[in-house]
C-alpha cells in the first residue's frame, strides 16, 4: 500500500503543480500549445489517486496531519461513503472535460490562465470533498470561488458576442439584459462572497462551541457532537448559526435568490460551464449540505429546538429553486443558459431531498442503515453530474460548429452530427427520469421520500409538508419538457444554422462519449449495490410508475412541439428569469452607488474641506493675519493693547475678589 | 546577540548605499533587508533569545532593549520582505521619475536611496524596540523621512501634501508621546521599558488611542491619507500604506497587551466606530477616479479591520497581527502595480481612462489579482486573519462567561456588520480589477516591461500564500498563540 501522505499529496497537488509550467510559459506560443497535455496529465494522476483511495483505502478512515494543532486547525481527511464516491466522480469528470478542452481551447488567447485555473478548480473541489476539518474545507471552498472567477471571466476582452449572455442591446425598462464575460466573473465572486463570509463566521462559531465525544474542542465534521452543540447554543443560536452556514451553500449552489450569477456565468468557456455545473462549484454547495446533514443526523435531533425551522427552510428554498429554475429554462433559447437554469433546478431538488432527511428515519435493514433521503440526494447528484456535463460538452461542440449560442439545428444537421445527437438523447433521457433509465430509479426514491413527508403531514397536521410532493412532480414534468426542448431545437425541429463547421471534433467527441457512457455504469451500480436496493423497489411503486409515465409523455410531446407560440409572452417573462435581474442589476448597485455617492461627495469632501482645504486652514490664515496686523509699529496700537490687557486683568481681579 | 547584528546591517547600509550607483545601491538595500528576513524566519522556526539588552537609563526611562517575541517577529518579517521587494521595484520606477522631473538620475538616486533605507529601517527597529521612548524616536524618523520623500519626489501638489502629512502625523506623534510620558510618571511603572510597565492609566490610554487613531487612520482624521498615499512617489506609497500606518495598530496592540481594561470599558464605542469607519471607507472606494487614491481608501477600510480586531479579545489580537501582515502584502503589491501602470502607460492613473489593460501588461494585472486576494482574505494568510477576527466576535459576544455577552439575537447586528465589512473588500477589489484590467482593450499589443515591475510582487504574493499553509503558519500562529494575552489554548 502506498503511504497515505503521498496519495493525498499527489491527489491535491498534482493538478496544481502540473499547471504551473504553462502559467509561467505564458509568453511562448510554442510552449502553451504543448504544455496543456502536462496539465491534463496532472488531473489524470488525481483520477488514479481517487481510484486508489476508492479501492484500497479502508472506508470511514480518518487521516489527520498537523497544521496548527494547538488551535484544532488540522489537515484532516476522511474516506467516508460520500467522499469516496464524490472524489472519483469529481476527478473523472474533470479529466474527461480536460481531454475535451485540449481541442476546445486550442488557439485560445490565454491558455496559461485557463489551464492554471481549471486545475486549481479541480484540486479545490477535491479538497472540499475529502476534507473533514471545516477550516480545511473552507480553504478548498475559497479556491473554488477564486478559480470560478478566473474561469468565468476568462474571455476578459468582452469583444466576442459568442461569449455574452442575453441578447445584445435588448432593454427592459432601464436595464440592458446582456452581460459580458468580465461582468460574469465579477458577479460570480461577489455573490459567492456574500455567502462565504457568513459561512466562515458559522465555522468560527462552531470552532468555539463544538466538542467531540470526549469533550475536546474540534472542527472535524465527523467528530463534532452536533446535538450537544445545538443544545449549548440554544434555539436562536441554532437557527442563526445554521442559516449563516447555509448562506455559503445556497449562494454556491445558486439557489433563489442568489441564482443570477449562475446564469451570467455562462459567459465562460463551455468546458468551464461543464465542470462548474457537474462536479464542482454548484455541486459543492449541495455536497456539503448532504455531508454535514450526514453527520448532524437531524432525524435524531427532533428534541433540539430550532433545527426543524432550518431544515424546513432548506426544503422549501430547494423546492422553490427547483421549480423556478425549470420554469425559467422553459422560456430560454440560449443553449448554455437553458442548461444553467436546469442545473439550478436539479440542485434545488438535491437540497430538498437532503433536507427531507429531517423527517425520515433510517431503518437498519434498508440502504445499509443510511438515511435514504441523503442517499437519494447524493445519487441524484452523481447521475446529474455525468448527464449535465455531457450536455454541456455537446453544447460547446454545437457552438463551435454553428457559431451560435442560441438553440438551432434541424434533422439535417443531426444527420451530419450523429455522435452529439445520440449523446444528447442518452443524456436527456437518462436524466429526466424516463423508466427504466438511470435517473428514473433515483427520482422514484425521491418521490417516495416526499410521499413520506406527505403522510407525515396527514398524520401530524403539519400541513406544509404536504406541498413538497406536488412541487417535486411539477418540477419533474417541466424539467422533462425543457431537456426535450433542448434536444428538439438542437437536432430535430430547430432552425437551420447559419454556419456549419463540422470538421474535427475528435477529442471533443471522445470527451462527451466517455462522459455519457458512465451513465450506464451508474445504472449498473444502482442495481447491484446494497444501499441502492431501495431505489429499485421504489421504481416499482405505483406513484413512481405514474410520474415516470407522465414524464415520458411530456418528453415526447416537447420533442414534437418544442415551442408554443401562444405562450410567447409567458416565455419571455420566464426567459428574463422573472425579472430577478432587476434586484441584482438595478436595485442593489443603485443603492450601493447611492451610498458611495453620499459618503464620497458629502462625507469625504466635507471632512476634507473642514480639515485640509477650507475651514481649518482658513482659520489659521485669519489668526495669523490678525496677529500680524498687531505688529504695525504704531505706538497707538501698543498702547491700546497694554490698556486692554490692564482692563482685562482688573476685571478678572475684581471678579476673583468678589468670588473669594 | 547575532540578531542584533542582522538588524544593524540595514542600518549600516543606509550610509553605504548612497555611495554606490543606482543598481548596486538597490541590490545592496534589498539584500540588507532580505538577510534579516531569513534570520527572522530562522528565529521563528528555531527560537531566539527573547530580548537583547542595549543600555540602561535612569528612571523614568529605564532599560532600553530589543524585544524578539513573535509579535515583533511577525511585524519584522513583513517589513523586511516588503521593503526588500519594493526596493527592487523602485529601481526602474524612480529612475523614470527622476527623468520625468528633469533631475540628474545618479546624484538624485543617492539622496533617494538614503531616505528610503532610513525610512524602512526605522520601521524595522520600531517593531523591535523594547522601550517606548525608543519606539517614539523611530516613529518620528519614519515620519520625517517619509515627509522628505513625498516633499521631494511626490506628484501633483507635492509640497502641500507633504506638509499636510507632516502636520497630521506630528499631531498623532505628540499625542502618543504625551501618553507615553504619562505612563512613565505613573508611580507603579516609573519606566518606559515594555517589560517593566504594569499599568496604563485611562488618560494615557486616551492619548495614545487618539494619537494612533489619527495615524491608523479612522474615519475623520482619515482624510490626510488619500492625499499622502496618492501623491507620494509610488515606492513610498508602497511602504507608507502597507507598513507605516499599520504600525499604529502595533503600538495599540502593545498597549493593549499591557493593559486591556480600557478596551473592555469602551469596547462597544470603539468597535462601533471601527466597523463604521471600515464600511464607510469601503463605500468610498467605489467613487474614486484615481487608482492610487482608490487604494488609499481601501487602506482606511483595512485599518478598520485592525481596530475591530483590537476590540475582540485574545483571538482578535492575533487577528491584529495577521491582518497587518496580509494587508501589507496585498497593499504593497497593489501600490506597486499601480506604479507599474504609471511607469508603463505614461502616468496613467485615471480609472475612467483605464479598462482592458490586462492585454498590455498581463503580469502586472495578475499581480494585482493576488493583491486583492490578500485584502479579501482568499487563499492567502488573510484567511487566517479573518478567521481569528470572526472567532474574536464569537468569543467576545457569544460566550456566556464573557463580560460583553450579548446572546445570539443581541449580537446579531454586530455579527452582520462585521460580515458585511469583510464582504465589501472583495466587492470593491474585484470591481476594481474589472474596471482597470478587463473589458474591451484599447490596445491588444503586449508591452515589454522591466522584470523589476512584477517579479518582486509575485515573490510577496507567493510568500503570502505560503504563510497560510504549514510549516510557516504552524510555527507562526503557534508562536503567537503562546504569548500571554494572545489567543489561548483550545481545550
Written account of the structure:
The complex is a heterodimer of chains A (660) and B (491). Chain A is mainly α and 660 residues long. Chain A has one domain. Chain A has helices spanning 4-24, 29-34, 36-55, 81-104, 111-130, 134-152, 181-209, 226-252, 260-264, 270-278, 282-296, 307-330, 335-355, 372-402, 411-416, 418-432, 438-460, 467-492, 506-528, 533-539, 542-560, 568-575, 581-613, 615-630, 635-659, and strands at residues 62-68, 73-78, 171-172, 175-176. In chain A, the strands form two sheets. Chain A has a two-stranded antiparallel ribbon with strand order 1-2. In chain A, strands 3-4 form a two-stranded antiparallel sheet. The longest helix of chain A has 33 residues, at 581-613. The termini of chain A are far apart. The model of chain A has no long low-confidence stretch (mean pLDDT 92). Chain B has 491 residues and is an all-alpha fold. Chain B has one domain. Chain B has helices spanning 2-16, 22-46, 70-100, 105-128, 132-153, 158-185, 202-215, 224-231, 234-258, 261-265, 267-285, 291-310, 313-344, 362-376, 382-397, 407-410, 412-437, 455-466, 472-481, and strands at residues 51-56, 63-67. Chain B has a two-stranded antiparallel ribbon with strand order 1-2. At the A-B interface, strand 1, helix 6, helix 7, helix 8 and helix 23 of A face helix 8, helix 11, helix 14, helix 15 and helix 16 of B.
Amino acid at each position: 500500500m502506498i503511504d497515505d501522505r503521498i496519495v493525498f499529496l499527489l491527489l491535491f497537488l498534482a493538478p496544481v503543480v502540473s499547471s504551473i509550467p504553462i502559467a509561467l510559459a505564458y509568453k511562448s506560443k510554442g510552449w502553451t500549445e504543448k504544455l496543456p497535455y502536462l496539465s491534463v496529465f496532472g488531473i489524470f494522476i488525481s483520477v488514479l489517486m481517487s481510484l486508489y483511495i476508492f479501492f484500497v483505502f479502508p472506508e470511514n478512515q480518518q487521516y489527520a496531519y498537523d497544521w496548527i494543532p494547538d488551535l484544532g486547525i488540522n489537515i484532516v481527511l476522511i474516506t467516508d461513503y460520500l467522499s469516496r464516491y464524490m472524489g472519483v466522480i469529481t476527478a473523472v469528470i474533470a479529466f474527461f472535460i480536460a481531454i475535451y478542452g485540449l481541442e476546445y481551447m486550442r488557439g485560445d488567447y490565454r491558455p496559461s490562465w485557463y489551464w492554471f485555473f481549471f486545475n486549481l478548480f479541480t484540486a479545490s473541489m477535491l479538497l472540499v470533498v475529502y476534507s473533514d476539518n471545516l477550516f480545511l474545507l473552507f480553504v478548498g471552498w475559497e479556491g473554488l470561488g477564486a478559480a470560478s472567477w478566473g474561469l468565468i471571466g476568462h474571455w476578459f476582452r468582452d469583444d466576442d458576442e459568442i461569449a455574452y449572455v442575453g441578447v445584445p442591446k435588448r432593454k427592459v425598462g432601464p436595464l440592458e439584459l446582456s452581460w459580458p464575460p468580465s461582468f460574469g466573473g465579477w458577479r460570480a465572486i461577489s455573490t459567492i462572497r456574500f455567502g462565504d463570509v457568513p459561512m466562515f463566521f458559522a465555522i468560527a462559531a462552531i470552532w468555539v462551541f463544538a466538542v467531540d465525544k470526549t469533550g475536546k474542542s474540534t472542527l472535524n465534521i465527523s467528530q463534532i457532537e452536533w446535538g450537544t452543540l445545538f443544545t449549548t447554543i440554544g434555539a436562536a443560536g441554532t437557527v442563526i448559526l445554521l442559516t449563516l452556514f447555509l448562506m455559503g451553500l445556497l449562494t454556491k449552489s445558486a439557489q433563489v435568490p442568489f441564482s443570477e450569477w449562475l446564469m451570467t456565468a455562462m459567459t465562460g468557456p463551455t468546458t468551464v460551464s461543464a465542470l462548474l455545473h457537474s462536479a464542482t462549484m454548484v455541486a459543492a454547495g449541495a455536497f456539503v449540505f448532504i455531508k454535514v446533514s450526514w453527520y448532524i443526523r437531524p432525524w435524531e435531533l427532533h428534541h433540539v429546538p430550532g433545527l426543524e425551522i432550518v431544515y424546513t427552510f432548506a426544503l422549501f428554498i430547494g423546492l422553490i429553486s427547483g421549480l423556478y429554475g425549470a420554469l425559467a429554462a422553459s422560456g430560454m433559447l440560449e443553449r448554455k443558459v437553458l442548461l444553467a437554469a436546469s442545473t439550478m433546478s436539479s440542485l434545488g431538488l438535491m437540497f430538498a431531498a437532503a433536507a427531507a432527511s429531517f423527517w425520515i428515519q433510517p431503518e437498519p435493514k434498508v440502504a445499509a442503515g443510511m438515511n435514504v433521503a441523503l442517499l437519494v440526494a447524493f445519487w441524484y447528484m452523481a447521475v446529474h453530474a455525468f448527464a449535465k456535463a455531457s450536455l454541456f460538452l455537446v453544447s460547446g461542440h454545437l457552438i463551435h460548429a454553428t457559431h451560435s449560442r442560441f438553440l438551432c439545428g434541424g434533422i439535417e444537421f443531426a444527420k451530419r452530427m450523429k455522435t452529439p445527437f445520440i449523446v444528447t438523447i442518452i443524456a436527456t433521457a437518462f436524466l429526466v427520469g424516463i423508466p427504466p433509465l438511470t435517473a428514473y430509479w433515483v427520482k422514484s426514491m425521491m418521490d417516495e421520500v416526499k410521499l413520506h413527508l406527505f403522510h407525515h403531514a396527514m398524520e401530524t397536521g403539519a400541513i406544509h409538508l404536504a406541498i413538497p410532493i406536488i412541487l417535486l412532480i411539477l418540477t419533474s414534468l417541466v424539467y422533462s419538457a425543457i431537456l426535450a426542448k433542448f434536444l428538439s431545437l438542437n437536432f430535430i425541429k430547430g432552425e437551420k444554422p447559419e454556419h456549419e463547421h463540422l470538421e474535427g471534433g475528435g477529442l471533443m467527441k471522445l470527451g462527451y462519449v466517455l462522459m455519457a457512457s458512465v451513465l450506464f455504469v451508474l445504472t449498473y451500480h444502482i442495481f447491484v449495490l446494497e444501499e441502492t436496493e431501495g431505489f429499485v423497489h421504489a421504481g416499482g411503486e405505483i406513484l413512481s410508475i405514474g410520474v415516470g409515465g407522465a414524464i415520458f409523455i411530456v418528453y415526447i410531446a416537447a420533442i414534437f412541439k418544442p415551442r408554443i407560440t401562444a405562450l410567447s409572452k409567458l416565455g419571455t417573462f420566464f426567459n428574463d428569469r422573472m425579472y430577478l435581474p432587476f434586484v441584482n442589476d438595478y436595485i442593489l448597485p443603485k443603492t450601493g452607488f447611492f451610498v458611495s455617492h453620499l459618503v464620497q461627495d458629502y462625507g469625504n469632501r466635507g471632512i476634507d474641506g473642514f480639515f485640509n482645504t477650507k475651514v481649518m486652514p482658513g482659520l489659521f490664515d485669519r489668526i495669523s493675519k490678525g496677529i500680524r496686523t498687531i505688529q504695525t509699529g504704531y505706538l497707538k496700537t501698543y498702547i491700546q493693547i497694554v490698556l486692554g490687557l490692564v482692563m482685562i486683568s482688573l476685571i478678572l481681579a475684581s471678579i476673583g475678589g468678589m468670588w473669594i | 546577540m547575532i540578531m542584533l547584528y542582522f538588524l544593524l546591517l540595514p542600518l549600516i547600509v543606509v550610509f553605504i548605499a548612497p555611495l554606490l550607483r543606482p543598481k548596486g545601491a538597490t541590490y545592496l538595500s534589498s539584500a540588507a533587508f532580505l538577510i534579516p528576513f531569513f534570520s527572522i524566519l530562522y528565529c521563528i522556526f528555531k527560537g531566539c533569545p527573547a530580548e537583547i539588552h542595549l543600555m540602561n537609563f535612569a528612571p523614568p526611562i529605564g532599560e532600553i532593549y530589543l524585544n524578539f517575541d513573535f509579535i515583533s517577529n511577525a511585524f519584522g518579517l513583513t517589513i523586511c520582505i516588503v521593503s526588500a521587494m519594493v526596493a527592487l521595484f523602485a529601481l526602474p520606477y524612480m529612475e523614470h521619475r527622476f527623468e520625468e522631473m528633469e533631475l540628474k538620475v545618479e546624484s538624485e538616486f543617492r539622496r533617494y536611496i538614503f531616505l528610503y533605507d532610513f525610512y524602512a529601517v526605522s520601521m524595522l527597529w520600531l517593531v523591535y524596540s523594547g522601550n517606548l521612548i525608543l519606539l517614539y524616536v523611530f516613529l518620528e524618523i519614519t515620519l520625517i523621512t517619509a515627509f522628505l520623500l513625498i516633499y521631494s519626489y511626490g506628484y501633483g501638489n507635492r509640497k502641500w501634501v507633504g506638509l499636510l502629512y507632516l502636520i497630521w502625523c506630528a499631531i498623532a506623534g505628540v499625542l502618543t508621546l504625551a501618553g507615553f510620558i504619562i505612563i512613565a510618571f505613573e508611580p507603579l511603572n516609573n519606566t518606559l521599558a515594555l517589560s517593566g510597565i504594569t499599568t496604563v492609566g485611562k488618560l494615557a490610554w486616551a492619548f495614545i488611542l487618539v494619537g494612533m487613531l489619527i495615524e491608523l487612520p479612522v474615519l475623520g482624521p482619515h482624510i490626510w491619507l488619500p492625499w499622502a498615499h496618492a501623491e507620494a512617489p509610488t515606492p513610498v506609497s508602497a511602504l507608507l500604506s502597507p507598513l507605516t500606518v499599520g504600525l499604529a495598530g502595533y503600538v495599540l496592540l502593545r498597549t493593549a497587551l499591557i493593559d486591556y481594561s480600557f478596551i473592555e470599558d469602551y469596547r462597544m464605542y470603539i468597535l462601533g466606530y471601527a466597523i463604521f469607519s471600515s464600511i464607510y471607507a469601503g463605500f468610498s472606494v467605489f467613487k474614486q477616479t484615481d487608482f492610487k487614491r482608490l487604494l488609499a481608501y481601501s487602506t482606511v477600510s483595512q485599518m478598520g479591520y485592525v481596530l475591530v480586531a483590537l476590540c475582540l479579545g485574545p483571538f482578535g489580537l492575533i487577528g491584529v497581527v495577521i491582518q497587518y501582515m496580509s494587508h501589507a502584502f496585498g497593499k504593497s503589491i497593489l501600490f506597486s502595480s499601480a506604479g507599474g501602470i504609471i511607469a508603463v502607460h505614461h502616468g496613467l492613473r485615471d480609472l475612467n481612462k483605464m479598462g482592458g489593460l490586462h492585454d498590455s501588461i498581463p503580469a502586472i494585472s495578475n499581480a494585482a489579482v493576488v493583491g486583492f486576494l490578500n485584502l479579501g482574505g482568499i487563499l492567502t494568510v488573510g484567511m487566517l486573519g479573518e478567521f481569528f477576527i470572526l472567532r474574536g466576535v464569537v468569543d467576545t459576544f457569544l460566550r456566556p462567561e464573557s463580560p460583553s455577552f450579548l446572546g445570539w439575537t443581541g449580537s446579531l447586528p454586530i455579527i452582520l456588520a462585521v460580515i458585511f465589512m469583510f464582504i465589501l473588500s472583495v466587492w470593491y477589489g474585484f470591481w476594481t480589477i474589472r474596471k482597470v484590467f478587463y473589458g474591451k482593450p484599447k490596445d491588444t499589443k503586449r508591452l515589454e516591461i522591466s522584470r523589476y515591475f512584477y517579479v518582486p510582487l509575485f515573490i510577496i504574493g507567493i510568500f503570502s500564500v505560503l504563510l497560510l499553509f504549514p510549516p510557516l503558519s504552524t510555527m507562526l500562529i503557534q508562536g503567537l498563540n503562546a504569548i500571554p494575552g494572545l489567543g489561548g489554548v483550545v481545550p
